Amino acid sequence: MTVGLTMAIPASASFQVQVKPSSPQLGDTVSVTLNATGNTPSSNPSVVLNGKTYPMFPLSGNRYRALIPTIPLDQPGTRQLQVSDGTQQQSLTVQVRDRSFPTQSIWLSDDKNSIQGTDFEFDRVDAFKALVTPEKYWNGPFMRPSNGYVSTIYGVRRYYNGEFAENYYHRGVDYAAGTGSPVIAPAAGRIALVGLESQGFELHGNTVGIDHGQGVSSILIHLSRVDVKEGDMVKAGQVIGGVGSTGISTGPHLHWGLYVHAQAVDPVPWRYEGVE
Ligand SMILES: [Zn+2]
């Protein structure tokens, strides 16, 4: 810009915002992309929703993107987002559609009720889910992590011993497959968690956590074996372990949880349409 020339730019004109999907439903990951139309790149762009700040990371061009999780426990309806390019703000309204999830009734013996998992495993899993790495490691749609059949879909709600579990939903997808059959990385990333049943992963069993970057992570649990170690970089499709029944599990299966900013989102849109 020429020195000495002043321009009056309306507050709303320095960037454009795009929301995808335009009509999300519970479980969807909402992409909020800021397109900076001026010459100056944005600094620390972000989206604020309900007092929580979601960082925006650079995409190609002069675009920045935040990923916002929605989950079955959320209320459907209107969300007010504040999008900031670091200098100016825009207010944005997103309507999240309701969605009905199937329910299951589970009867547990006192025996199984008594196994709650260990603080050790929950602390490690919580720290893993909270990772927000600026790099983006994934590219294109995610792969199915097992060739077993889907035995439980995402979002199923439960009655335990006849009582509706308000805070429960199935936080991933289950694949039934034979013990030892391959489990692959659904997308590229860094192995940020390896937990073993023998070291206190009572509930999850043998576990691998993959950091895909920018607040997106996969957790793969109940494994029979683990073929990777923490710090390894993996490619999409790379074998990371075998299907098993370790931890609290009623038979050999893989549970894959996909997390965005520590919330378990529906992997289906990531598998089929993909998220840029
Ligand atoms: Zn599961």
Automatic annotation (TrEMBL):
It holds the Pfam family Peptidase_M23. One of its GO terms (molecular function) is metalloendopeptidase activity. InterPro entries: Cell_wall_metabolism_enzyme (IPR050570), Dup_hybrid_motif (IPR011055), M23ase_b-sheet_dom (IPR016047). Residues 169-267 form the M23ase beta-sheet core domain. This is Peptidase M23 family protein. It comes from Lyngbya aestuarii BL J.
